[in-house]
Design a protein that fits this description.
About 35% of the residues lie in helices and about 20% in strands. It is of the alpha/beta class and about 550 residues long. The protein binds zinc ion.
């Protein structure tokens, strides 16, 4: 009854407003093309914001009532307003470090890579490490991994390690191998592989997944100041691109301390939904201490453990049910130990901690669904701190079609990255065979099966631009409009679905669907304002669309001049 009265009075307030009842807004946005992602009222012209909340959504005429003497009125001149975009899977400090170290994004050939390395080595002091990230060999001629002997040509003395864009492989030179003490007799560490030359048996320079650690632990650690700078740079870039929240997929409690410091000093405004790695000490601490929810005006939440269950497709580390079609001697590998995972899952479920697991190959996906199912059975709803734990599978890239319905059945959320498809589908047919592409990057099949699919960029694995992700989701073609055999265009999503992938669905995957994710009365005022109407323009034009303004908590945090 009480609730009824509240609802009634709210309704009256809107239907018969009087000047005395209406509080003037801090900001009124008018003349916009507003898509709310709220199915009950999908379009609007104007929005009024007071403090951190949306207090009105509707027509220009009705919005006028919220304009007081102190109100900032922003004429959008028809620009498109969307609920604040969320990147459901990103590595925030990685995005910042990509700007700070040798950025190898867009490297066009081995020669191009070597030229970039040489330029950096020429400036380095004797013995100084050269580190970088971002190369992808699949578009090179020939599309082969670089070797340590290639790097030795431009850096005979300085140790070098360069991460592939996906982060699941790196190439290092001989100087780096020497410092790490790796030779042909060094055994592969668990969850990783030291790539060998087929003829000589010598390590060829490529290190997959956990094997990267053998060299990386020799690199002098980055300073705290560097790490802070990376977060500041990463946040700034995200806000300028229109992201209002990133779901930061991995890391540790040190990251959380850095975020707290930067929020306190006002150096970052971006919302961060943080996960930390497990199984291990960080995960145990989170389970013991419990989650952090909505600190710094709903900007910082930590309630998730990130597990990595296999490698990536590009470096053939993704765990497959059968051998790779282009390398019959391998089917990838799992990177988590069941005896460590199982007790952690049980504890997490009891204590209300979310788990998200990186799973790319069909074997890894089946494995983690099995492990999740076992834990969910072992800890029934009545003894869970959070009855519906909304556990996630990150990537869910290659899933055996029989496993797709299991996500909805178990209440597991596949968190997927559209740009992976349009990059990977150039080499996925040869890696996997045409047959196995059924169930690969299967966004529409997942949605039809009854789950939400939060969308992410996985930056710095990919560029991390919302317009690239939105385009990839609706077009499922490369940026030039190309699609090859086996790309399964029927798995592209509608624009209305794509909008949800970057707004309300990631909010749901973060337990925040009542707080944000749509443009609706009472929700947090997060807005992404674009130069063009990506819900109607031709596909190709989506990629030319710019973010013109970003609003977080009712504050304009970015405005294109
Ligand atoms: Zn990732």
């Amino acid at each position: 009854m009480k609730l009824f009265l509240v609802v009634l009075s709210l309704l009256l307030l809107n239907v018969v407003p009087t000047q005395t009842r209406i509080q003037p807004a801090d900001i009124v946005f008018k003349n916009g093309t507003v898509y709310t992602a709220n199915d009950r009222a999908p379009k609007a012209q104007a929005i009024a914001v007071k403090a951190d909340r949306i207090i009105f959504v509707g027509t220009n005429a009705a919005a006028q009532k919220y304009v007081g003497p102190q109100t900032r009125v922003i004429d959008l001149h028809g620009n498109t307003v969307l609920p604040g975009f969320t990147d459901a899977h990103q590595h925030l400090s990685g995005v910042g470090f990509r700007e700070m170290t040798l950025n190898l994004e867009g490297t066009t050939s081995l020669d191009d890579l070597l030229a970039k390395v040489k330029a950096r080595v020429d400036q380095a002091k004797p013995g100084e490490w050269v580190t970088g990230r971002g190369w992808i060999e699949t578009h090179w001629q020939p599309p082969l991994f670089p070797t340590r002997w290639d790097l030795d040509k431009v850096s005979p003395n300085n140790p070098v390690i360069l991460g592939r864009a996906d982060g699941h492989g790196a190439v290092a030179n001989s100087a780096a191998f020497k410092l790490a003490g790796i030779d042909k007799n060094t055994p592969n560490p668990f969850g990783g592989e030291i790539s060998k030359d087929k003829q000589s048996g010598e390590p060829n320079g490529m290190l997959l997944d956990a094997a990267q650690g053998l060299v990386r632990r020799r690199v002098p650690p980055t300073s705290r100041a560097d790490e802070e700078r990376a977060v500041v740079l990463g946040s700034k870039r995200n806000i300028e691109l229109g992201w209002t929240q990133v779901q930061d997929a991995g890391g540790d409690f040190d990251d959380v301390e850095i975020f707290k410091k930067l929020y306190t000093s006002g150096e970052i405004k971006l919302r961060i939904y943080k996960a930390i790695h497990g199984p291990g000490a960080n995960a145990n601490r989170l389970i013991k201490e419990g989650p952090i929810i909505g600190q710094f005006q709903n900007r910082l939440t930590l309630r998730t453990i990130k597990v990595v269950s296999d490698g990536a497709l590009g470096s053939r580390g993704a765990a497959l049910l059968g051998p790779y079609s282009d390398a019959h001697d391998t089917s990838g590998f799992l990177t988590v130990k069941t005896e460590q995972l199982r007790p952690m899952l049980i504890d997490a479920l009891r204590q209300g901690i979310q788990v998200e697991t990186h799973a790319i190959g069909d074997k890894a996906n089946r494995y983690i669904l099995d492990e999740y199912a076992t834990a969910l059975r072992a800890v029934p709803r009545n003894i869970r701190k959070v009855a519906d734990p909304r556990w996630r599978v990150e990537h869910a890239q290659i899933v055996n079609p029989v496993d797709i319905p299991r996500f909805a059945k178990l209440g597991i959320i596949p968190s997927m990255q559209p740009s992976h498809a349009i990059g990977d589908l150039f080499f996925a047919p040869s890696r996997l065979g045409i047959e196995r592409l059924q169930g690969a990057y299967a966004w529409e099949s997942f949605i039809k099966s009854g789950v939400v699919v939060p969308g992410g960029s996985d930056a710095p694995v990919e560029r991390g631009e919302p317009m690239i992700e939105f385009y990839a989701a609706v077009a499922r073609k490369d940026p030039k409009g190309f699609s090859g055999p086996g790309w399964h265009l029927e798995e592209a999503v509608t624009r209305a679905q794509a909008l949800k992938m970057f707004t309300i669905w990631p909010a749901y995957a973060a337990f925040e669907e009542k707080l944000r994710g749509t443009i609706e009365l009472g929700k947090l005022a997060d807005l992404t304002i674009l130069s063009a109407d990506i819900m109607t323009i031709p596909e190709a034009e989506i990629l030319n669309t710019q973010c013109v303004m970003t609003v977080i908590n009712g504050e304009v945090v970015f405005e294109r001049s």
